[in-house]
Amino acid sequence: MSVRNDKLQMLPMNESENCRDPEFAWGAVTRGIVSLVIALYLGIVLLGPLANPIGSADLTLPLSRAVRPVHQFMYLGHGYRFFGPDPGPGHLLTYRIKTNEGDIVEGQFPDRSQHWPRLMYHRWFMLSESIYDHYAFTPSPEMFRESLAGVQKEIDAARIEGAPREIVDELERRHWNMRQDYDLSSRRFDVVVRGIAGYLMRKYDGQSIQLFCLERLIPLPVDVRSGNELDDPRYLSVPQQIAEFTWSDLSSEEIQ
């Protein structure tokens, strides 16, 4: 019995000795460096969904801007909140192009009949969602000027009333952030929409183009159980025109 016990113990003892072999063991410094690298990587991975699309202006957004080059290089800047728990309605962009021959070309994106494989459809879907977001959440110039004037009135009132410097600084920071966010969103919308318009004009030899946005609501479970299709036209909103260009409106660099 004692001999059998010795044989059973030999393998674990040998394995434990190999594990303690200094040739394969990491020192304390190496373990610390590797642990730090892993912790930083996990932090960068978590910053993607924490900062996009909704983030804290005092924490996650500044941190995400600092690691943005790493996010872009390693494709880690994902915002999974878009897909759950409630993804919300989808959005289509439709276009109407008058060609140089006088014909009218109409289409939309994303379009399952044209954009395939699925990854290509997904790219066009993300593009339509991005354009809609900029369109829907960027106020008109008139509304923006009114909002900016309201904050300026608060700043002036705080100064007249002798409010603490911290309050005035916070109001001035809000005023500055509003201008920066509006300018950035407006430039992005203009660049993306002009780029799409130029691409479609070039593709169809267009003379002019109109771009519209439609919102597709998600049917309720009771509607699906009653037999309604997901692509039922009743779930589409009225088209809203978001841009209109002629050939001369777009620069040669955008068309060519």
What are its keywords?
single chain; 256 residues; alpha+beta; 2 domains; 4-stranded antiparallel β-sheet; 9 helices; extended
Task: Describe it.
The chain has 256 residues and is α+β, with helices and mostly antiparallel strands. It folds into two domains: 14-82, no CATH class; 88-138 and 189-255, no CATH class. The chain has nine helices and four strands. It has helices at residues 2-19, 28-51, 60-66, 68-74, 118-137, 141-160, 165-204, 221-225, 252-255; strands spanning 90-99, 104-109, 206-216, 240-246. Strands 2-1-3-4 form a four-stranded antiparallel β-sheet, covered by helices on one side. Strand 1 (90-99) and strand 2 (104-109) form a beta hairpin. It is extended. Mean pLDDT is 82; it is low at 6-11.
The chain-level structural class is alpha+beta
Total beta strand runs: 4
The proportion of residues forming helix, as a percent range, comes to 55-70%
- Shape descriptor reads extended
Low-confidence stretches: 6-11
